[in-house]
Here is the input.
Amino acid sequence: MTAWLRALPTSVRFATMTSSAFLVLMVLAGVVGYREFRASLRDTIDERLVDVAAVQANAVEGTASGTSPDGELLADLAPDAGGGVTPSDIEAQILTRDGAVLRTTQGLEGVAGLVAGRRLVRVAAGVPVFGDAVIRGEPLRFVGTAVADGSGRIVVVTTPITALADAERTLLAVFGPVALAGSAFAGLAGAWISRRGLTPLARMAAEADAIGAYDLSQR
Here is the structure.
């Protein structure tokens, strides 16, 4: 492989190096930018979900499991037009400390507990946890928080994030071609710079060869 690369013209090797370096930088910048973009899209929704989950946890606190109808899980949710979350889109679960479903609203019927694995440990420590899930083909954002009555129960609140998922897919669809086009341009620029920079050296080498050949012809 090394011998094959060395056999290539210097301008081609320089173009490959510049193109590869640019692509790596674009990928790194894209990953960082995508993570920041993704987090910023969720900040407002997460804040609202935490508020809703806190209200639901307070409503559940001190009640026995199964003493209230499922439909009352979100009965005290007030509309909040500016909060980024539509009350009619919100669904909820109440889980045991090990993630089993105790109660759920209609939209999450038959769905396993959304808080699982390491998130259960964090919730048990009193830390709200966030995550994404796809339920019946619809992307959801959820938050889980513990009920502060010593029962170990967990309240989970969800809301659809279809618009956010579409925005993220659009960003990825645009970034890919831009990165490839930029990498190709960097390769062409590298080849042009290499050729321009090596032209004087090639001229000097040709003149040296000519001088050497002339000297040999005089002997």
Observations:
- The radius of gyration is 31 Å.
